[in-house]
Design a protein that fits this description.
about 400 residues; alpha+beta; five-stranded antiparallel β-sheet; about 30% helix
Length: about 400
């Protein structure tokens, strides 16, 4: 039977928007430079340098320069939303996976596996956040998102169709950012005889700076221009009570997926819809609910495409007269070009293998070998037809 699914964020026009203003600062989110100051009388209260913060007239931080972002948010203990220090305000740290999800699926005392193979209880998985911003996050994201999800797949489908996907996309960006920010506290080597490197030391934080700008847009009031939001998919999931929750992300491809009962959400956070555009024909073949393996593979395939775009979109923060707009520059064409920097087999092994690691089934050794090569799929059969998830071991 046909299923209803939403595929959003595809690039329907490859023509880049031309933005004109004679009183504007272009501060690129993804490179360590300020591109241009277009008027000498720009009222920004201070001369802006790459490492500085931009504040509004009330002293609220609108934009973090890369150096400040690294020092205060990534390596420091400031609130990741407003930038307050624990010595300045009361802190009530924010759960990485929202508390309402932990309650709904009984996850507080269950464990999440970290990139270094260490485990940690979900209830202790938090990032620095002041009490005011924690409450604001609840009002802005967790309350409305939980109310949408609680009403089921059909309601979620109708909500996105009528209201758009900005709320849910930004919510996924928030979870992705918190997940990676938390790695600053964990050793890369569990063996304490080895160097005390943190998982975060191996993350290219410059590439996450843009996502931080998106995450904070509800606080800064930043307008998100056309093309800023990336690929977004809503799919029905096989509603298995033993697999009611699943979460996965891919750092290289800036991909995230989450399963909440019968609802599956996927986003690619910095592709302006290009990955979904390239994979559209295959996605159109999906005509039954997904299982977690298929959900993960779909996210990973989109993330892999995002890593191999011949030309990438770029993003700028444009700030003038206390107005803030995040702008996307889109490439003229969307093309795949294997840059040999990432291996899809590694993606499959890191994202899908944990779900089958402890399972016993025929030809497991063959399946795992093909996964390592990047030549296996849980989504499609040898004829390219979608495999009904009820017939897939997961």
């Amino acid at each position: 039977r046909r299923i209803t699914k939403l595929l959003l964020g595809r690039i329907t026009s490859l023509r880049s928007e031309q933005y004109e203003s004679d009183r504007i600062l272009f501060a690129r989110n993804d490179v360590n430079t300020i591109i241009d100051m277009m008027e000498d009388n720009l009222n920004l209260y201070n001369t802006i340098l790459p490492f500085q913060k931009i504040k509004d007239s009330q002293g609220r931080i609108l934009f973090y320069g890369l150096d400040c972002f690294a020092d205060e948010i990534v390596n420091g203990d400031s609130c990741f939303i407003c930038g307050a220090n624990p010595s300045e305000k009361e802190f009530n740290d924010e759960h990485v996976i929202p508390d309402w999800i932990l309650r709904k699926y009984g996850l507080h005392n269950k464990e999440i596996r970290l990139p270094n193979s260490e485990t940690m209880k979900y209830g202790q998985y938090k990032v620095p956040c002041c009490s005011d911003c924690n409450s604001l996050l609840g009002e802005t994201f967790e309350t409305p998102v939980s109310e949408i999800i609680e009403k089921g797949y059909s309601f979620t489908y109708d909500y996105i169709k009528n209201e758009g996907y900005k709320l849910l996309f930004n919510w996924l960006a928030l979870i992705f950012f918190k997940t990676n920010l938390r790695t600053t506290k964990f050793r890369f080597f569990l063996d304490k005889r080895k160097p005390d490197l943190k998982i975060a030391d191996f993350i290219h934080w410059e590439s996450i700076h843009h996502i931080h700008c998106i995450v904070r847009s509800f606080y800064t009031g930043a307008e998100l221009g056309p093309g800023v939001l990336g690929s977004f998919l809503l799919f029905p999931m096989r509603n298995d009570p033993y697999e009611s929750f699943d979460y996965g992300d891919n750092l290289d491809g800036k991909g995230i997926m989450i399963k909440l009962g019968e609802i599956g959400l996927i986003a690619i956070l910095n592709d302006s819809g290009a990955s979904l555009t390239l994979f559209q024909d295959e996605v159109n073949k999906i005509d039954a609910p997904l299982n977690p393996l298929q959900m993960r593979e779909l996210m990973l395939r989109l993330a892999f495409l995002n890593c191999n775009l011949k030309e990438r979109p770029s993003y700028q923060s444009e700030i003038w007269d206390n107005h803030y707009r995040i702008h996307a520059e889109l490439p003229a064409t969307i093309e795949f070009q294997d840059n040999k920097q990432v291996n899809f087999g590694n993606f499959l092994m890191s994202g899908c293998y944990p779900l089958i690691e402890n399972q016993q089934f025929d030809n497991k050794e063959f399946v795992v070998g093909k996964m390592r090569e990047g030549n296996f799929t849980f989504l499609f059969d040898k004829n390219g037809n979608f495999i009904d998830s009820r017939n897939v071991t997961a």
